[in-house]
Amino acid sequence: MQLLSPRTGARTFTRLMTQAALAVTLIAGALAIGSPAQAAGPYDRGPDPTDAVLEASRGPFSVATQRVSSLVLGFGGGEIYYPTDTSQGTFGAVAISPGYTARWSSLAWLGPRIASHGFVVIGIETNTLYDQPASRGRQLLAALDYLVEDSPLAVRSRIDPGRLAVAGHSMGGGGTLEAADDRPSLQAAVPIAPWNTDKTWPGIQVPTMIIGGESDSIAPVATHAQLFYESIPSSAEKAYLELNGASHFFPQTTNTTMAKSMVAWLKRFVDDDTRYEQFLCPPPSGTAIEEYRHTCPSS
Fold first, then answer.
1. Has keyword GTP-binding (predicted)?
2. Integer Cα distance of 221 and 208 in angstroms
């Protein structure tokens, strides 16, 4: 055995301790990188959200389209918008209905906007332009079933069948309430300027955001959107967004406030992505918003 001098032994001991400390630091750093303080949820898609991201005309995902024939069963065809990214896993899906006498083209700006935030979207044509809310609700559900079961593989393979939602304008909004009431397994519903002769929805348990217009003379909020909101039990999670000065037709042109809140709601409840709670609670404010009521999402 070779004996070290006291000085050499001290230097060797110091060097070994320094190397050990460096190794501990490197290991801790690697663990910190691999295990962030707050792990991402299993359905989080895309970068951390910001006001700028949600207010832009497109989200972070590129989008492709697929036309649906009018010969499909249960609804009148339409247009599918879906993310082209195949590295993020599957996405939630949303079916959207236009209103009375309207075609999907009246809401077409919403398709790529929502899809570009990580959703498969189908904007439907209704069987007739005059279909009432109950029929539109059934058609929304038929469109979701088509996406999950019969859509082209490029679309179907991107969909998580357990994360589905509905939305619609006017009678399509009334149909959205019908669909949410009929299928409680839905993850979210967004009626927009909704119209329905049925004013109470105590059976809805689907998280529902109702968006109304202050100056709506066709489906006045006092006799439609507000009544619908108040009738839905708070156990369902719900929000009511009223747009300042907006008419019944506000969804038919690009509306940043509506799109921002709608995407945040879908991300929070379809994707269970809690990063989006900041845009829902505390409630959003600004000159475009006349009123906002909410239950506040429960994490």
1. no
2. 16
